[in-house]
Design brief:
Blueprint (H helix, E strand, L loop, with lengths): L4 E10 L9 E9 L4 E6 L3 H7 L5 H16 L12 H8 L7 E3 L3 E5 L5 H10 L4
Antiparallel strand pairs: 1-2, 1-4, 1-5, 2-3
């Protein structure tokens, strides 16, 4: 019988006008310490973002989103935060911010397939139905 793992996840959001608190989900961060898994995945639906925020500079936004992925991977070029232990990186990335890129509160789940949870969450939380 597969071993169940507890994981934490947060949804990555683009908040073009922070004062309005409106956002579009663009990715997820998943931390599963027992499986030694920390991963972030981003998918930008550019047409949806342009319809939502016509003045948004998507090219200027990309480096901030790419940094989240690089920090999760522990990429040395991502700076000192990427050198922290995986759980500390997750907590740093999910800390509350008031900026154009924000992260939801962390949520908890259980799975027997931690390698599949990122795809499951992308389908459920980021991609449009259908």
């Amino acid at each position: 019988m597969p071993t169940p793992h507890t994981y934490d996840y947060a949804v990555i959001r683009v908040v073009p006008r922070v004062e309005r608190e409106e956002f579009i989900n663009v990715g997820v961060i998943v931390s599963c310490p027992t499986a030694r898994h920390l991963e972030a995945r981003i998918e930008l639906d550019e047409a949806r973002l342009r319809a939502f925020a016509p003045g948004l500079d998507i090219d200027a936004l990309r480096p901030y989103l790419d940094a989240i992925v690089a920090i999760c991977k522990g990429d040395a070029e991502a700076g000192p935060i990427a050198a922290l232990p995986p759980r500390a990186r997750f907590h740093w990335l999910t800390a509350k911010r008031s900026s154009i890129v924000q992260v939801s509160p962390a949520h908890v789940g259980r799975t027997t397939q931690p390698e599949r949870i990122v795809e499951h969450l992308m389908q459920r939380m980021v991609r449009l139905p259908g």
